[in-house]
Amino acid sequence: MRVFIITGISGSGKSVALNALEDAGYDCVDNLPVDFIQDLIQSLGKQNREKVAIAIDARRGQSIKDLPKTIDEIKKFHDVRVLFLNANTETLVQRYSETRRRHPLSQSDDTRTPQVALIDAIEKERLLLSDLAETAHNIDTSHIKAHTLRSWIQDLLKDERPGLTILFESFGYKHSVPRDADLVFDVRCLPNPHYDPQLRPLTGNDPEVANFLREHPEVQAMGDDIRRFIETWLPKYQADRRSYLTIAIGCTGGQHRSVYLTNCLFDYFEKKATLSSENTFHLLKRHRELDLGSSKTH
Q1: Cα distance between the two ends of the chain
Q2: How confident is the model at residue 279 (pLDDT cuts 50, 70, 90)?
Q3: Where is 264: in which H helix or E strand?
Q4: Name one GO molecular function term (predicted).
């Protein structure tokens, strides 16, 4: 059975994610106690159900600490993926202000101060969920809209075979480093198409920009160095029994250099996966700033 565990910081989009999985044919359960997860999976298995998505958050208090152990037990018999949604505190505060909902940890155990400040509740939740964040596939929803999150989750569901899924993601440092990145490569030292007026409005997806960058030996050298690093250490990440590995390539604005090199790396490893008879990884590609429609900058 394919088991998708959705967790993360409250207000970061778990409901959106659960709805996307439900649209993909998953049996979905929200806010399930950790102790009931294995019983639910066993029950669905008897009904010959093949896919289940379970959303769990910090409302379960200290019992959330048992979730990593439970996940390890389930992995012995099922294909388990864990998705951790996160967002920066400023964004979370704004979202709670707009919806006027209470944070699930806003209630204090101290009768003298029955309410906890929103920022304190958010930080408490981060601490409770810190172990999960380290082992899951992370998506930072701070600056993305609901439809973009749904689209990214649909990408994750395209290949449901077991094994390591490698996500190549371009980004712009001007818009912050992705919180969900496992490996980050800085390519801002490379020649910048932004300074060519004809190339400035284009992106790394356009052949004119690709041709410009391909003409510079240092661009090829940087790409080769990143490729060799990934090839050297990829077996170690696979041996660590990860489900996802996010490799982020960053330039200043996330429009030209990072997009081009992300495409090159994706194409190389896609070809390698196609030619290998022992392929145990799957590939995804994302251009964060292009997906978000960020204004072009150098």
Answers
A1: 46
A2: low
A3: helix 257-275
A4: ATP binding
CA–CA dist 104, 121 (Å, integer): 8
Dihedral of CA atoms 187, 153, 233, 2 in degrees, nearest 10, equals 180
Domain locations in the chain as residue ranges:
2-158, 164-292
In 56-95 the beta strands, taken as DSSP E runs, fall at: 79-86
CA distance 228 to 266: 13
Which residues are annotated as part of the binding site for GTP? Answer: 57-60
What is the dotted CATH code of the domain comprising 2-158? 3.40.50.300
Q: Which two tokens stand for residue 275?
A: 């030619």
Q: How many of the other CB atoms lie within 10 Å of CB of 36? A: 12
CA distances from residue 115 to 97, 106, 215, 281 in whole angstroms, order as listed: 16, 6, 61, 47
β-strands 244-251, 183-186 pairing: parallel
Could you tell me the pTM of the whole model? 0.71
What's the Rg (C-alpha) of the chain? 21
Residue with tokens 């449901």: 160
Mean pLDDT of 158-167: 76
pLDDT digits (tens, 9 = 90+) for 124-151: 888 888 888 877 889 999 888 888 999 8
Binding region:
8-15, 57-60
Q: Report yes or no: 284 and 165 within 8 Å, Cβ to Cβ.
A: yes
Strand pairing partners for 171?
250
